[in-house]
Input
Amino acid sequence: MIMVVPPTSPMLITRNLLYTGITRAKKLLVIVGMENVVDFMIQNVDVKKRNTGLAYKMRQ
Output
């Protein structure tokens, strides 16, 4: 699996995203991006509330 990590908004490059990439890779994960961006992802533990509407959809 190849995970591209572009330099972008800090809201988008979080530790959770990196964790998801690592855990979804079956055999190998290649991370393409700048080292400082990956380091930022490791340190970025800011979690945003996701408004998916899932609870509403499940009630319907």
Summary: Residues 15-24 form the longest helix (10 residues). The first strand starts at residue 2 and ends at 5. The CA atoms of residues 7 and 55 lie 33 Å apart. Residues 2-59 form one domain.
